[in-house]
């Protein structure tokens, strides 16, 4: 049983793939490079050190959310509650004294809320067979209600200096928050790509029935997936609160959509079982570059939203066609 | 005894469990509200509840049909924002423009909704993604058109929202008539039956040669029309359209559908449950207002209702 799960598929059984499908996983990196080159040609300011540093600063919170979203989407779900978790952890960040001494309790409480949200999401999806869309929508609304009740609509307080530094400071142009992203991406990327648990995630997402027949506790794997997503969103909320500096009830608004767009663009299939962290992060990078280019080119900022909408449909259509 | 005596009634109740549960909750809330406050019991307050639910009822009507096919329309919020801003922006206080603009807005809603349906059919990607993308595009378009409230409508236009016929708000009457028509359509018209067939078993419907494309196109176009009606109502109510009017309707429109017992997986449910779901939410907010509960807790209550509803209705899946 265990061997069946762990053994790699025999090379001989792999169907011959055409040249285009063999290189199609390069489509996104090539697209990203083209995007950067063209943007640099159109507007030289795009490739300036400060602008690149600025883009890295912006990609970190989104990338962290995408890591969690990737797990959930590979498990055939999606997580709409991430933005609510982010805002809640940003509110938590300012609920203590605002000194560095409170960093640990803030981290514990925020991640605790993220984990708890993930557990509720996971239990609803697995034990009650609620569709992931509705389950995470409901927890999003409930969490939002609690947050508003807690802050009475007007949050106040300060973000500890350490979070300010992590969220917005740079070292020789390299933002600290990108280091947080890299560490998390390596840990959870390896967990997904190299560990036994990662394989169970792919099998469960690819076909839950098969997973059960192979002796995998599909429910447990799914719940852990949502827990990872909640925890990532909580950390991203703290990082973003350090970037924004001031606190409001809507830190992270729109990240649920952006993270799903990035994941889908990165080849993580909404029908489950396919894709990886690297693709998702490339998707996040493309989004940030496009948003940045829109601003640098002096185009109306509303175009960002329109491009987002077109990109998600085109990307989804592209991958559907490829998988057929 | 009675269970044996009324087997057909029992079967009906079993089939419409959602509707029965919601009616029960409505009665409980009404009785509770009546004890709570004298002002709750007044006809004015009850008519208020019905009147205030008009917008939600209209958009949820279209949403019900898309969900019955196993799809969903996440573009409704942006569509309402766009259409309401266009309505007041184009009328711009000119009474002569009311009719052409209203007709144009309804047609535009139908076209945008139809485009949703067309993309779902041709691209073969989940409606969730298609309408999410469409919603973002429409939101961008309305913000390009105007960043704030645009134009205004002549005072007479508020009649749509505040006018009364035999003491009953016009919006409420329109809602009741539309829901009755759609209920009849779903039950007796051929296309209405196909909606259930496609939602219940897409592959099977295709194999049977049912016009799947026409069904999908119809439900999304209809949802667009419902958004247009909601937009017209909201403009009449507020006197002006603005680019974020519809923001909350995307997710709000799904709540009454689910609470009313329509399954997100498609093929089960109906518009009666949705209408009762709309009234339930409206009534709940009203009662909570009388209890001086802040809107923050109303949000929590709404989320918990969704969780309760989706966990009650869920069918036990066969598991190996």
UniProtKB/TrEMBL annotation, chain A:
Pfam families: BPD_transp_2. GO terms for molecular function: transmembrane transporter activity. It is a multi-pass membrane protein. InterPro entries: ABC_transp_permease. One of its GO terms (cellular component) is plasma membrane. It is found in: Cell membrane. Keywords: Cell inner membrane, Cell membrane, Membrane, Transmembrane, Transmembrane helix, Transport. The keyword Membrane applies. The keyword Ribosomal protein does not apply. PANTHER family: ABC TRANSPORTER PERMEASE PROTEIN YPHD-RELATED-RELATED, AUTOINDUCER 2 IMPORT SYSTEM PERMEASE PROTEIN LSRD. Part of the ABC transporter complex LsrABCD involved in autoinducer 2 (AI-2) import. Probably responsible for the translocation of the substrate across the membrane. The complex is composed of two ATP-binding proteins (LsrA), two transmembrane proteins (LsrC and LsrD) and a solute-binding protein (LsrB). This is Autoinducer 2 import system permease protein LsrD.
From TrEMBL, chain B:
It holds the Pfam family BPD_transp_2. GO terms for molecular function: transmembrane transporter activity. It is a multi-pass membrane protein. CDD domains: TM_PBP1_transp_AraH_like (cd06579). GO terms for cellular component: plasma membrane. Keywords: Cell inner membrane, Cell membrane, Membrane, Transmembrane, Transmembrane helix, Transport. The chain crosses the membrane at residues 18-36, 95-121, 128-146, 166-186, 215-235, 247-264, 271-291, 297-314. InterPro entries: ABC_transp_permease. It is found in: Cell membrane. This is Ribose transport system permease protein. It comes from Kaistia hirudinis. The lineage of its organism: Bacteria, Pseudomonadati, Pseudomonadota, Alphaproteobacteria, Hyphomicrobiales.
């Amino acid at each position: 049983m265990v061997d069946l799960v762990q053994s790699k598929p025999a090379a001989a059984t792999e169907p011959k793939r055409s040249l285009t499908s063999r290189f199609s996983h390069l489509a996104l990196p090539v697209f990203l490079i083209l995007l950067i080159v063209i943007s640099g040609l159109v507007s030289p300011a795009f490739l300036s050190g400060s602008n690149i540093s600025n883009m890295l600063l912006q990609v970190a919170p989104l990338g962290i959310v995408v890591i969690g979203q990737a797990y959930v989407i590979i498990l055939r779900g999606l997580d709409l509650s991430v933005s609510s978790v982010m805002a809640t952890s940003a509110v938590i960040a300012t609920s203590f004294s605002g000194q560095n001494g409170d960093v640990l309790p803030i981290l514990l409480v925020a991640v605790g809320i993220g984990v708890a949200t993930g557990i509720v999401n996971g239990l609803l999806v697995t034990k009650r067979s609620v569709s992931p869309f509705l389950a995470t929508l409901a927890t999003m609304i409930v969490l939002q209600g609690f947050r508003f009740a807690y802050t009475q609509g007007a949050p106040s307080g300060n973000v500890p200096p350490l979070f300010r530094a992590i969220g917005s400071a740079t070292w020789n142009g390299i933002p600290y928050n990108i280091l947080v992203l890299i560490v998390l991406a390596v840990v959870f990327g390896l967990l997904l790509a190299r560990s036994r648990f990662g394989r169970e995630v792919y099998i469960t997402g690819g076909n839950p029935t098969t997973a059960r027949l192979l002796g995998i506790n599909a429910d447990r794997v799914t719940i852990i997936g949502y827990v990872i997503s909640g925890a990532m969103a909580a950390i991203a909320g703290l990082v973003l609160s350090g970037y924004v500096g001031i606190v409001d009830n809507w830190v992270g608004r729109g990240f649920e959509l952006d993270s799903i767009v990035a994941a889908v663009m990165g080849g993580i299939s909404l029908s489950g079982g396919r894709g990886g962290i690297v693709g998702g992060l490339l998707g996040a990078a493309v989004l940030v570059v496009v948003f940045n280019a829109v601003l640098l080119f002096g185009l109306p900022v509303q175009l960002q939203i329109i491009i987002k909408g077109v990109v998600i449909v085109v990307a989804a259509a592209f991958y559907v066609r490829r998988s057929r | 005894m009675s269970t044996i005596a009324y087997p057909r009634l029992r079967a009906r109740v079993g089939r419409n469990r959602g509707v029965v549960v919601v009616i029960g909750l409505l009665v409980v809330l009404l009785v509770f509200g009546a004890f709570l406050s004298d002002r709750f019991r007044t006809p004015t307050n009850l008519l208020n509840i019905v009147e205030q639910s008009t917008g939600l009822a209209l958009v949820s009507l279209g949403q019900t049909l898309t969900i019955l096919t196993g799809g969903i329309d996440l573009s409704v919020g942006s569509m309402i924002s766009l259409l309401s801003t266009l309505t007041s922006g184009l009328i711009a206080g000119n009474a002569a423009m009311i009719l052409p603009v209203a007709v144009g807005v309804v047609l535009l809603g139908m076209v945008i909704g139809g485009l949703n349906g067309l993309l779902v059919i041709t691209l073969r990607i989940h409606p969730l993604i298609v309408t999410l993308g469409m919603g973002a595009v429409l939101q961008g378009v309305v913000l390009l058109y105007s960043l704030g409230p645009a134009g205004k409508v002549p005072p007479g236009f508020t009649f749509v929202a505040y006018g009364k016929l035999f003491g009953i708000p016009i919006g409420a009457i329109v809602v009741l008539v539309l829901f009755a028509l759609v209920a009849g359509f779903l039950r007796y018209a051929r296309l209405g039956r196909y909606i259930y067939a496609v939602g219940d078993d897409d592959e099977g419907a295709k194999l049977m040669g049912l016009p799947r494309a026409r069904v999908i196109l119809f439900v999304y176009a209809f949802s667009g029309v419902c958004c247009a009606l909601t937009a017209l109502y909201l403009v009449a109510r507020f006197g002006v359209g603005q680019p974020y009017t519809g923001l909350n309707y995307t997710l709000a429109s799904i709540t009454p559908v689910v609470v009313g017992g329509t399954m997100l997986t498609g093929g089960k449910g109906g518009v009666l449950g949705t209408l009762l779901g709309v009234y339930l939410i409206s009534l709940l907010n009203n009662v909570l207002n009388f209890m001086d509960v802040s809107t923050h807790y109303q949000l929590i209550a709404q989320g918990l209702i969704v969780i309760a509803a989706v966990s009650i209705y869920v069918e036990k899946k066969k598991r190996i």
